[in-house]
Amino acid sequence: MEAHSTQDADRSKVSVITPSLNHGNFLRENIEAVLHQTYKKVEHVIVDGRSTDDTISILKEYPHLKWISEKEEGDNGVLDAIWKAFYLSDGEYIVLSCVSDSLKDGDWFEKAVEILDRDEEVSHVWGLSQNISEEGLPGKLWHAEFLEQSPPQKKDFLPFWLATTEAVECNAVFRRAIFETYYTRNTPDEPYRFAPSMGFNYHLNAQGYLPYFLPIITYFGRMHKDQRGLKYADVIGQGADIYYRELSRYKQDLLSGKRRHLFRNGHSQIIGELQPSDLAGYRKRIMLYRIKYSLKRKFERIFYRL
User: Fold this and answer.
1) How far apart are CA 139 and CA 103, in angstroms?
2) Is residue 39 part of a domain?
3) Which of 68, 138, 141, 287 is most buried, judging by how many CB atoms fall within 10 Å of its CB?
4) What is the pLDDT of residue 294?
């Protein structure tokens, strides 16, 4: 498997990995958004599934790219393409960017790298996502309230996750070894193979890795007629059901004292453990988060009816 590339031999700090198949109409915007990040020690790796549109001619326009185009076999080609792109990359930090999506904040990589370089406890840095239409019109901003009040950081994220089930978007900036160890594999016995971001989030939180949130809109997630979420809605829903069941079981076992929770830094070293004396405080915090977000959802439903 030989990749096309004229990139400098120096190792990039950030690797953006992009699976692609017959989405040439979105590809140039995706490439340009990465290219115009203020942080420049970036490589962009694209694995194309032998597109029949203008994808290849567009890829050839950008000599800095590292790319291959070969047909994926099997029923889950996008996940195979993600892993091919990962193993073609060499960056210390990994960003997953679907070909139809685009970056919003031009300083996003620079800000995330600064956090990861400075704080070895942090395993991944995340921000907010905003929907855009197929034509590029801005849509729903997910968790706009986080721009005013950030969710809990690092170790304090655990009770927030247990209460709200909130998952970090997979276009966050991850440390390479953590992505390689915990991102979902395309194996027949993998329950999350069609809902990889949910499986990834479950394992990151259950294994005690610490996220860091930046109050910025990091990227646009495009809504379009060919998007994967529509094609695989049923099996993605099954993956979501597994996620919620596993999370609920984890919370019950943790709060009952049946399960240990170890906190790990960005290099997978254990840096702490949730103590039995902490559980009463966790129960209270979880209850308060659940009340707050239950009220938030009720107000949102009322607002959308008006």
Assistant:
1) 15
2) yes
3) 68
4) 73
